[in-house]
Write a structure and sequence with these properties.
The chain is an alpha/beta fold. It has 2 domains: 180 residues, Rossmann fold; 203 residues, CoaB-like (Rossmann fold), CATH 3.40.50.10300. Helices cover 35% and strands 24% of the residues. It is built from 14 helices and 19 strands. The strands form 5 sheets. It has an 8-stranded mixed sheet, with helices on both faces. Helix 1 packs across helix 9 and helix 4 crosses helix 6. The two termini are 37 Å apart. Bound molecules: ligand PMT. Its EC number is 4.1.1.36, 6.3.2.5. It catalyses: N-[(R)-4-phosphopantothenoyl]-L-cysteine + H(+) = (R)-4'-phosphopantetheine + CO2; (R)-4'-phosphopantothenate + L-cysteine + CTP = N-[(R)-4-phosphopantothenoyl]-L-cysteine + CMP + diphosphate + H(+). This is Coenzyme A biosynthesis bifunctional protein CoaBC.
Length: 411
Amino acid sequence: MTSLAGKHILLGISGGIAAYKCAELTRRLSERGAEVRVVMTTAAKEFITPLTMQAVSGHPVADSLLDPAAEASMGHIELAKWADIVLLAPATADLIARIAAGMGNDLLSTLVLATDSPIAVSPAMNQQMYMNQATQENIATLKRRGLHIWGPAAGQQACGDVGMGRMLEPMDLVHLCERFFQADLHEQKPLEGTSLLITAGPTREAIDPVRYISNHSSGKMGFSIAEAAAQLGAKVTLVSGPVSLATPENVERINVESAEQMHSAVMKHAPSHAIFIACAAVADFKPNQISEQKLKKTADEDGMTIQMIKNPDIVASVAAMTEQRPFTIGFAAETQEVEKYARDKLERKNLDMICANDVSVQGQGFNSDNNALHLYWKNGDKALPLAAKSELGKAIMLEVVARLETIRCAN
Ligand code: PMT
């Protein structure tokens, strides 16, 4: 799938004919799991209506620096901080000039000044205007400052001219965004020097030498997180229940079968790890007794009763550590009232974050290649819409990096 899952894209539209392509662009970005918020200049509204952009993005469009209602919901500074990337498309010669000059004379140019997120500029204008020395110098200035310049393309223009100046097609911009976030992930090593312990897969609770109680966890979700954490530079220890997955590169794996064994392995290694993620589907109960011999059917009994006792709660045990406690993240597999039950587990188990999934929805959750998650922590939350588990692994780890950074800054 895509590296756009859960990404915040601030789309800045200025007044060019290519603005009409922004509805399509927004839909394609959203389909891939990105959250898009739109800011329009006054001139942009002559080419596409804010109502259209509100409908396709699912959020009200911001268009004024001095709108008290908009400032009360998500103010312009908040919006500037919210963005993972600011995409200016179409970026007219006028917008490019104002940004190059460092002006803040409308909402969009002010946001560009106020953000420390990466900015991508997709120029769109008449070919003569594009070739003008002033425009070329302004673009060179933006490049020198580290802004990404995506396009323009050459071809027939709305005014009838032929030449450089067409905005890239929506799908080209989508692919550039995807590539940007992939490169971003692989180039950075924000977890260098950090260690992460993670559980994955099911547990097996033996009944007798040949039978056990287990569940449908494939381990894919946990292994994807382990892989992403290793790619981000972490030293990763993966405690895995019985699954048939290959160990991700640069990950140390400890195989276990039962919840008891998983508990022992985790408690042994937790004090030497900075982060713990409990992704395993651990059996809450196990048979009170494991029969030494294979249980036999008898002719006079139509049923059998197995007495179950509680397993240790692994994630709660780690979260209760009083010394060398890792930053502790749990999962919540729910079939109803997902937020309520997830937040309850977050609090009851004393976790720093919880990743909730609705495992009643077809095509996600247990033993699927895809999943949709909602992350909750004490003062916030983030939706990670349906995506490949490999993408979600990266998205979760990037959010963990962000949470740790926020905590570090607050201390
Ligand atoms: O493995 P896949 O096929 O890829 O599927 C992924 C998944 C659906 C298994 C995964 O996304 C997921 O939801 N994992 C948690 C499953 C679970 O057991 O959820 P829970 O709500 O019952 O448990 C809450 C938390 O407590 C979990 O972090 C769990 O690991 C932990 N727990 C539960 C019981 C126990 N005895 N010890 C624990 O640590």
